[in-house]
Design goal:
By secondary structure, this protein is mainly beta. 6% of the residues lie in helices and 56% in strands.
Amino acid sequence: MAVLALWLVLLAYAPVLPAQEPAREPEFLLLEVRLEQSVLSGAIPAYEVGEHTLLPLGELARLLTIAIQTQPREGSASGFILSEDRGFSLNLDNASVTRAGKTETVDPALVLAEPDDIYVAVSLLEHWLPLALEIDRASLSLRVHALEALPLQARLARERLGDRAGTRGGYEDPGYPRHEQPYRLLSMPFIDQTLTTELRRTNGRPQSDAAYTAYLTGDLLGMESSLYFSSRQQAPSPEVRATLERHDPGGNLLGPLHARSFRFGSHSTSSVENITRGIRGEGVTLSNRPLTRPTSFDRQTFEGDLPPGWDVELYYNDALVGFARPDAEGRYRFDDQPLSYGRNDFRLIFNGPLGQTRVEQYAFPLDQSMVRPGDFQYSVTEHRDDDGQSRTIAQFDLGLARSLTASAGLIRAPAGGDEELYTTLGVRTFWQSLSLGGGVVQAKDGGSLAELGVQTRIGGVAVDASRIHLTDFTSEVFPADSDPIRSHDELRLSGSLPLTSRSRMPVTLEATRDERESGRANTEVSARVSAYVHRTALTNTLRWRASGDIEHATGSLQVSRRVRDMSLRSQIDYLLGSERDISSLALSADKYLADGYRGTLGIAHTFASPETRYTAGFTKSLGRFGLGVNASYVDTGEIALGAQLFIAMGRDHRRSDWRFDARPMANSGAASVRVFMDDDHNGVMDADEEPLQGAGFMVNGGRHQARTDAAGIAHIDHLPVKQHVDIGIDTSTLIDPQWAPAIEGLRLVPRPGSVASLEFPVRMTTEIDGTVYLLEDGVERGIGDLKLELLNDQQEVVARTTSSWDGFYIVPGVIAGDYRLRLSPQQLQRLGLTDTGTRELTVSGDGSFISGVDLMVLPSSPTASAQYSRQVLPK
């Protein structure tokens, strides 16, 4: 009842909490952008308004190298499309667009001006630009089909991005300096909270229940800490788990151990192929393996925290392969997803009860799982599961050559009610277009296992095949049996078939066969086909099992469709063969109503029972928190009514205030970024220096929506954790073209429940201009195509430019300091020219242009002038 009372108090005071962000009618999305096989951006913002999807014109043009720039404040855009004779101009004041000299009117409902960009409906973009844009709402991706050759495509072809199996185009490391975020002994945690009440009537008897769930993250004792707490009125004891951990992608933890991660407390073990399965419990793990490396060479397990009311979908190479809701400990897990030779792109799509959507993307090229020559990688785990059984897992990898990795392991794990000790040895290599691997496992009781596997591609099909031979071998994966398995064979084929001229249909076929000591064989075959057509995602899976004379066949069809602003999802499970029938059917609809309201309806029928369940609900997002009510009715007579409150909170120490959000925030990172005018060039904001309002940012190469306020501060939240994130100033948002950041950006590793404080000083820059002359026979004339270099006081080249046809040059964006301007010595030597000396310059930093800095060169021999004319001057 205490939880119920707390919920009622919060509900009573909820209306006095002002919304942090006013509810908007358009639905906000983040989309991955693909051009052919290259990923151009992991997430660009988009809006859905009714049946239209609005994309950011400026950001899309930047990604596709189309010369169009937007001015959101002025409500305009200008530039050209592929060639300068195809000019482009958009003016929202008079709702018009001009293309190649022809002016058309624009429907204002299809254009949205936001502070960061101008968002334009897909139908208009396809009309204006030589593009076909396909939005896969199920996997939150945007596929771009170029109808004319783009400059970007030529560059990608030159760089051969994506030609090697498993590679992807896209964001590249800009080389920003690393920002170190110190750990604290104790920090104020971020908290995701859900309060629920429920009234239920079953068999004429009313029951009530209340629940409170909290997930907290923050710094504790110099480490990352997390605490999960869940309590129900009807449960005898609460569910609690706590973890302390640290992660460093650079491998600088624990001194000489060069660990990249260590963790102790509540967590799951990783599975060990053929020996153990992943299981929850308590323990400690230490590893120096790269954080982005798969959990095993050809398998990857995905797990994480999942708040109440949320669900997560797992996509593999654009095919839906898994669906999960939070378990009793508030977590999800997808075990041992296979990796093939070639492309292994995974996408986790998280769906919240208030219509929230969050995407995590992972790519695991198989060849990058190899250990570099001479590198030694390890992971050690000591663990005790919830049933009290203990496990020790120690695994080691050594890079022997560029394409040769050896592995070994020592595993202590339960097997058949007893404890068994296993030793493993293995080797894996890449040879031409093949990945070959083999290994042996020896148990202390004398049992053994030998495995040989091959992975390759034949045409566009990835082929994975393996054979395991067992000799008196038992483990969690191969339990003891009166008729033990003697051999285990697996075959997996995955690829895609053309569906339309712009889309393909992912197809996967898997087969396993176990041959037992008696000669009896068990065979399983499954096939999965996925497609996305007309905003409808379909995945159909068939499974056939045979054991002796007994056969069993089942199927499952999942359909997801977007109709205007409504999402429809359905699943049909059915039986095949002589028992052909539908076993269960489920259908749900989710519709955005208005002003933050969202309605849901659902029906599920089980034919075996039989039983039909009807559900309905409404949720309301108020920015700082969310409310929900729901009802269900089962045709057996059960009725239930419930209500929920969703609220997340965290403290920004720079502002010393609390931030509230309906979206969870405890499992992501954040940064508080301050932008200011650094007049004295000391990199610190002094009392008399001006904060800059309206500055925007680039996060991992994409424009972010955050803008600095009057204090020059922006809060960038929901950053990915345990990986590098690059944040820099979007210079196009600085109102003075002479302003330039003192540093291009910073690289940090965000961590849950912590806000990184970043400082971006901005300085006034200037331009240096002048003319390069050639003195010959007493006559001076300007010469072009000579390269100039600007060196700082450390004798480092900080800027380069080239003189134009008449010798005139400009060096833009120069900040205060002492410099030396020279002509390129290498070019002068090649051309047989001699300069008359460098120019020493001092830039004061007040923005005044420095003009008339002329340079002169002389022929070093009588033939130098002719040589220059042949190599430089146009014919």
